[in-house]
Amino acid sequence: MSTEKEMSDEDKVTQTSEEILQVEGKATEIEPTAEIDHPEQEHEVEEEVDYSNFSKDQLLHALKELVSSGKILQIESQINQIKSHFDEVLQKEKEEALEVFVKNGGAADDFDYRLADVDRSLLAGLNEFREKKSDFLREQEKQKERNFIAKNAILDRLRELVDGEETTHSINTIKQIQDEWKKIGPVPAAQNKNLWASYNALMDRFYDNRSIYFELKELDRKKNLEHKTEICEKAEALVQLPDLKEAIRQLNDLHEEFKHVGPVPRDEQETLWTRFKTASDAVYARRKEFYEGQKEVLKENLLKKEALIKKLEEFRDYQSSKIKEWNNKTKDILAIQKEWETVGAVPRENGKDINKHFWGLFKQFFHHKNLFFKELDEIRTKNKNLAEELIQKAESLMNETDWNNTANQMIALQQEWKKIGPTPEKVRDELFTRFKTACDTFFENRRNSTKQVNKEFDNNLKEKEGVIQQIIEAAKGTGLSAAALESFINQYNAIGFVPRKNMKEIMSRFNEAVDAYVKQLGISGAEKEDFLFRLNLNKLQADPNSNRVLNKKEHGIRKQIADLENNITLWRNNLEFFAASRTADKLRNQFEEKIQKAESEVDKLKKKLSIIREF
């Protein structure tokens, strides 16, 4: 409990002891407000229990005992310590299990720690305490409202009794009302003072307005005096009680009892209250002395915790795309947490804010980490689905015999497979094995058909040689035309593959034959190049993917033009830096020659772009 709180409570006690309310011209005693209104508001010296060396079974046993005690708010600090040490032990076990899992060949991101029975029991016990605390506080507030209604009902009865006739029956009733009032528990703080003021005023009116019962009133006040004197003696003895926590608890009970005892003779009232307050102050002074001795230690602990918060601030907005880096930072964070838990208590006025600050930063880091792994899991799941789609496609193709088309599709699937990111570790090998099996099955089937394919390739070679011979013969005769040449080219392209060893030779012979034919047509230079380019485009139109191929070719030409134009600009800029000298003139001439060649090439490429647009 902070010193500030102690002083405010003591001042309140002093004030209420002197408070006098004038009702109908007579001084009426106001019952002193106890320092503690009801048990759940007690500020007691907490019993220190070191749970740091407790095993989980011991922590569970201690937790069950505390929860079963029913002292919800008094045990909250100990419950929090048990939770803190349980979290530390559990985290250490997780790290050790993860280390063993990784050493045995597992991947850290696939690690899944399973709680033991004692872990689940501890978590269930902590959850039970939270529910009991929540229920307890809700019920307390509801009970205060019910108590407020009940005490107002008693005040209404008391008003009727005060305004009624003076009978012996009314005296018995007033005693009954006093007993009922005393049995009713606390009310909301905002209504407490007014209730007591009304109650005391009505009680004084009852005694003062009925002279027939004056002697009984005085006798009752004397009995109350004896009772309160006994309370004072008990309070005075508490200063010698060694257990400060128990002394505070008993003093709170005595305050509650003192408040519910009726009025005493007026000439004894102030003296009696001063005596009780003095005894209370002596106990409070012991508590104040205890906390004064703790101030320096608490301040040092505050500085240590502020330094740890500063270290934790560095992780406030930490982000990374690598699992290893997250795990390394997590170790740093947990080391800071462990150091935090070794630091003792801080001044009460700082405790709530500094804990909120530290644990807010702590939770923020793990929130970011959880988001990262959640996104990673989503990505891996998405990749798993993509992989399964590719596997289905590969498995549907693995028994196809259209070797060329299927091989191209298989190779395309393999390229897509390489682009897929990581998949969940537990299914990664299985997915790869299925995909590889489908691909291997197809290519093995294709290899088994090599003999037949080679025969077909040899036939294709002979057919292409025949077409080449036809082009050569046609070039020697008359009636040459571009359409005829285009027909020869289409015929040549329609023939399938030739043996790999003959590919370059047959293509060279084909190009020579085409060049000879074109020469006989009288086409040369740039015109020849454009003519051949058009023939090539005509050939592409027979391809099912002609649009995609043409777009790709157009994109490539545009990129060449952009690169050349950038080089031309750069070279022109460089010309401005050459000084007038023989060496500089030579370099200038070289650059100008480069520029001319590049501009010529740009013109050719633009011409090709215009030809592509025709298609």
UniProtKB/TrEMBL annotation:
Region annotated Disordered, chain positions: 1-47
Highest taxon of the lineage: Bacteria
Keywords recorded for this protein, A-Z: Coiled coil
Basic and acidic residues composition bias: residue spans: 1-13
InterPro entries: DUF349
Name of one Pfam family that matches: DUF349
Coiled coil start-end: 547-615
Annotated protein name in UniProt: DUF349 domain-containing protein
Originating species: Mariniradius sediminis
